[in-house]
């Protein structure tokens, strides 16, 4: 949960944001303290992030959380992907997001030592998704085709990097000039850099701008070139396409999980139930990719 705060410093307003977990969320895969540490270290590596101002302690009585600087801008992807006032931002975002990822993936993994981060490359991600699918007693033939297809195409990553894990439209702060900050680092882990690239290009995160495969704002080839210019490893388009399919499969299973949570009574959010119905969208995307190679 996020809360806007405002303090006074030197007689001037100083806006901040409190990121806080609450009991109903259950156990998080990453504590807010670790998330704050990852975000700070990524920022030191040149990734645009909000500055962490304070990590909560038990003595604060506010639970698990941190306070970060407020960054002015738009976070709702449908707005900055469609509104005319963000046309200049969209034109700049291919280079900006590629540069941010290249910088992140180039940081020495030892910078994140001691944080207890997982290591999951492509095959491990696929197995984790299969375990989740089996736990849901999944019966989606298209997803099973995707599992079989990706088992042949995903290979072990020889040089794992720190990956954001949820790098996509919707987790950015955008201003008129483009990308201002990257948010939501709770899924960060060591893995294949193509995971971030494929997730950014997953059709779900284009928010209807499906002809712009990179986040709804850019083209793949231009993104790959910008990523490599900024210091990222050369991108194999075929391998990246496999991670795009992995992204659609991942989103489809996430939709199944949200629907299951609603049906079980674990969550009462009608939004979760509605998102659960989007399994069919992921199926359609995967069918197209199986036939055409990419969407």
Automatic annotation (TrEMBL):
Which CDD domains does this entry report, sorted A to Z? ACAD10_11_N-like
Q: Which domain of life is it from?
A: Bacteria
- UniProt-listed SUPFAM superfamilies: Protein kinase-like (PK-like) (SSF56112)
List the Pfam families hit by this protein, alphabetically.
Answer: APH (PF01636)
Question: Taking every annotated instance into account, which residue ranges of this chain make up the domain Aminoglycoside phosphotransferase?
Answer: 7-229
Entries under PANTHER family matching the protein: AMINOGLYCOSIDE PHOSPHOTRANSFERASE-RELATED-RELATED, BLR2944 PROTEIN
Q: What is this protein called?
A: Aminoglycoside phosphotransferase domain-containing protein
Organism for this UniProt entry: Pacificimonas flava
